[in-house]
């Protein structure tokens, strides 16, 4: 596979993730691009810095799709500033994106955390539970792991590098904590749902 065939797919993934985060933050409140960029950086900056060169084209795409609108707001000592807000169509699109996350949105921790950050905007508790269930199923998959041989995750004593042992221990501890939280949260959501006979 050449670099040119990998790049467009990766670019689309990053673009979709940025758009989801923009829609999510604007669902919370309307804001200036500067504040939006600050919040995006806090959420996603450790993975990929959010530059003006990424933010403004994303906002423009979302405006063209009528998912986001802008309005001028008087500036205190200068020209009006642009405030971005989510449209009704944008809210519906946010719900769709949260209800139907891709497999990569579930399996890639950084992408999943962006979905999780806005999952409370889904009005359906059943839809929220379905996203969490998919993540839990992924974490419980015995084929998943950093160091796998013959379909089985290697035990610490089978690894030759102390650094790989460290990666595996950290990953297991993190996965265990996340599975515990997911199980507790799913049980709480299920308790709220009406029972069917």
Task: Provide a concise account of the structure shown.
By secondary structure, this protein is mainly alpha-helical. The chain is 63% helix and 9% strand.
Q: Would you kindly provide a written description of the structure presented here, covering whatever features stand out?
A:
This protein has 197 residues and is mostly helical. It folds into 2 domains: 1-100, Arc Repressor Mutant, subunit A (Orthogonal Bundle), CATH 1.10.10; 124-197. The chain is 63% helix and 9% strand. It has a 3-stranded antiparallel beta sheet. Strand 2 and strand 3 form a beta hairpin. Residues 1-7 have low confidence and may be disordered.
Note the main attributes of this structure.
197 residues, mainly alpha, Arc Repressor Mutant, subunit A, 2 domains, three-stranded antiparallel β-sheet, two-stranded antiparallel ribbon, 5 strands, 63% helix, 9% strand, disordered N terminus
CA distance, first residue to last residue: 52 Å
CATH topology of the largest domain: Arc Repressor Mutant, subunit A
H/E element sequence:
HEHHEEHHHHEEH
Shape: globular
Secondary-structure blueprint:
Blueprint: H1 3-28, E1 31-32, H2 33-44, H3 52-64, E2 68-73, E3 81-86, H4 88-99, H5 103-107, H6 109-118, H7 125-140, E4 148-149, E5 152-153, H8 162-192
Antiparallel strand pairs: 1-3, 2-3, 4-5
Helix pairs in contact: 1-2, 1-3, 1-4, 1-6, 7-8
């Amino acid at each position: 596979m050449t670099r040119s065939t990998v790049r467009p797919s990766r670019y689309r993934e990053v673009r979709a993730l940025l758009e989801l985060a923009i829609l999510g933050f604007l669902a919370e409140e309307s804001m200036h691009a500067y504040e939006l960029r600050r919040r995006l950086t806090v959420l996603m900056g450790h993975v990929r810095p959010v530059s003006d060169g990424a933010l403004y084209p994303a906002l423009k795409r979302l405006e063209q799709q009528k998912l986001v609108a802008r309005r001028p707001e008087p500036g205190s000592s200068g020209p009006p500033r642009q405030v971005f807000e989510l449209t009704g169509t944008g809210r519906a699109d946010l719900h769709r994106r949260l209800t139907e996350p891709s497999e990569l949105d579930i399996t890639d921790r950084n992408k999943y955390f962006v979905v999780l950050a806005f999952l409370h905007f889904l009005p359906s508790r059943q839809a929220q539970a379905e996203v969490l269930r998919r993540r839990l199923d992924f974490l419980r998959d015995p084929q998943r792991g950093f160091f796998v041989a013959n379909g089985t995750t290697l035990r610490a004593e089978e690894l030759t590098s102390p650094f790989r042992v460290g990666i595996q221990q950290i990953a297991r501890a993190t996965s265990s904590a996340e599975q515990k939280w997911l199980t507790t949260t799913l049980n709480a959501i299920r308790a709220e749902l009406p029972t069917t006979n």
